[in-house]
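F.,

This is the one I mentioned.
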């Protein structure tokens, strides 16, 4: 049994309860067929006007030079643990619509949709994904020659989560920590800000 499985208030798909973001990864490569399927899942995410404003750079530890290039685009704190992951991904958003060159306010949302698809597909395949906002966008722009109106937004470490017992103390503590979540009434409202919807307020018995 997965000790990190979510304990939910209402029934959801089991795969969603299994998803979590480890800091520790096994020294085990991810087969290319699985990686292709992760990006295929991302490909089929919904997006505004079907713009698909997402782009991904991928690097595996089998290619140390490329892996180190992508690793250099993470902040130092993330480099410390992500260097052990077998796969790193840098996610880039297109900030303008291709159809009319206007600002795409949905770009980050749609990149998130694609990333969520990727994460769910990874979970189905027994893989774990740890997403990061702690990146160096300008470093990424220089390293990968990212053009104007495109921006490196997030990164991901992908692989098989390690047994926490085998991790250094700091990573072990992180991977064994509880997974707190806000209750639904804290963010599902009706009528006015902060007023919990009756839909998600459990009756007092």
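My design for it:
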């Amino acid at each position: 049994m997965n000790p990190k499985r979510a304990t939910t208030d209402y029934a959801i798909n089991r795969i969603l309860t299994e998803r979590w973001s480890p800091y520790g990864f096994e020294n085990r490569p991810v087969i290319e067929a699985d990686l292709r399927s992760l990006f295929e899942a991302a490909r089929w995410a919904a997006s505004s006007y079907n713009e698909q404003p997402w782009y991904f750079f991928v690097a595996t530890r089998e290619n140390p030079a490329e892996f180190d290039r992508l690793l250099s685009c993470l902040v130092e704190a993330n480099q410390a643990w992500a260097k052990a992951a077998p796969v790193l991904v840098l996610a880039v958003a297109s900030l303008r619509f291709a159809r009319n060159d206007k600002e795409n306010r949905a770009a980050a949302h749609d990149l998130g949709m694609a990333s969520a698809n990727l994460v769910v597909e990874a979970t189905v395949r027994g893989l774990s994904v740890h997403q990061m906002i702690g990146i160096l966008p300008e470093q990424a722009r220089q390293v990968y020659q990212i053009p104007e109106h495109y921006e490196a937004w997030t990164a991901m470490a992908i692989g098989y989560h390690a047994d926490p017992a085998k991790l250094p103390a700091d990573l072990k503590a992180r991977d064994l920590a509880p997974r707190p979540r806000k209750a639904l009434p804290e963010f599902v409202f009706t009528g006015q800000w902060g007023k919990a919807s009756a839909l998600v307020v459990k009756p007092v018995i």
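Residues 107-124 form the longest helix (18 residues).

Talk soon.
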